[in-house]
Structures are given as C-alpha cells and as structure tokens.
Amino acid sequence: MDLKEQYEKLLRYCYMKTKDRYIAEDIVQEAYLRFWQSHSYRDTGKELAYLYTIARNLCMDEFRRAKAEELDNFQDVKAEKCYEPESAIEQIALESALLGLPEELREIIMLRYTNEVSVADIAKITNMSRFAVHRRMKEGLSLLKKSLEGDGADD
Predict the structure, then answer these.
(1) Which CATH number does the domain housing residue 126 bear?
(2) Does some domain include residue 75?
(3) CA distances from 96 to 5, 38, 54 (A)
(4) Closest by alpha carbon to 97, among 36, 147, 49?
(5) Residue 67's pLDDT is what?
(6) Tell me: the pLDDT tens digits for 31-54?
(7) End residue of a domain, out of 40, 69, 98
(8) Distance in angstroms (rounded) separating the CA atoms of residues 106 and 145
(9) The domain containing residue 60 runs over which residues?
(10) How many helices and strands (H and E) does the chain possess?
C-alpha cells in the first residue's frame, strides 16, 4: 500500500471531522510527520490503521483545543467539486443525511465508503471488533436509507 496515495482520503476524513480545510490539511501533515517519525508500526502491516489513528487523535485534540463548532453550519460548507445539477441535489441530500447521523456512525460510513478503508482497519482505528463495525455500518446505512426515503416522500 502506498501511503502517499492515502493523502487525499486522509484529508477528506480530517475535513469531515473538523469542517475546516486548513485545519484538516495541518492535521494530515502532522499525522504524516508523526507517522514517519515513529518506527513501531512500520513492519507490522498496520500502517493504514496507525496513520488513521494518529489523524483521529489529532482531530480530537483540535476539538478539545478549539471547543468544537457545531455541525449545523451546513450552509457554510462549500463543495470543492463541481457536480451536475441533478447529482448536486442528490449530493446535498446525502451530505445532509450524513450530518444527521451520530458521529460514530458517520465516521464508520465515511471511512468505509468514501475512503475505502477495510473493515479490519476500521476496527483497529475505532477500537471495535469487526463484528461491531459491521453492526454499526448496517445501522448507519439503515438510518441513511430512512432519512433519504423520508426526503423523497415529501415530493
């Protein structure tokens, strides 16, 4: 696995946690710096889990230091990608539904489906068993489906 290829995914993960691109960039750089300074996980085959764990801890430190802003400032978050008009509506609905999930479920779903992190690595990152990750993913996807179906029922 090439850890350089993980940069954008890790940045997206940190951005999801911090809602600030500049802070997320700083956290990712710090995570890579700490990863490369540590030699304890290099040869164990757990590099990805270790890198995400460092980033996750740095995000938590940022929340403690900055006394975290509330996530309901959705309108202030600007999409960096251009979407087709039809998919933009779907993207907004999905992002809104994701923001409605509890933090733990949102994190697991984003790691798995956006960043394509394996269930085994998610289990290491979140200190859960693989079975617990599967259960939480199923719960989160069910809640997302209900939320998205509820949005469509209003039309």
Answers:
(1) 1.10.10.10
(2) no
(3) 28, 38, 27
(4) 147
(5) 54
(6) 998 888 887 666 666 788 888 888
(7) 69
(8) 13
(9) 1-69
(10) 7, 0
Number of domains in the chain: 2
> Which one of 44, 69, 94 terminates a domain?
69
Kindly state the percentage of the chain with pLDDT values over 90.
Answer: 6
What is the chain's alpha carbon radius of gyration, rounded to the nearest angstrom? 16
Report the predicted TM-score, pTM, of the whole model to 2 decimal places: 0.56
Determine, yes or no, domain membership for 78. no
Please tell me whether residue 116 adopts helix, strand or coil conformation: coil
**What is the per-residue pLDDT across 47-103, written as a single tens digit (0 to 9) for each?**
888 888 889 889 888 877 765 344 434 434 444 444 454 666 777 777 888 888 888
H-helix or E-strand spanning residue 152? helix 130-153
> Taking CA 115 as the corner, what is the angle to CA 85 and CA 110, rounded to the nearest 5 degrees?
75
In a domain, 77, yes or no: no
From CA 19, how far away is CA 76, in angstroms rounded? 9
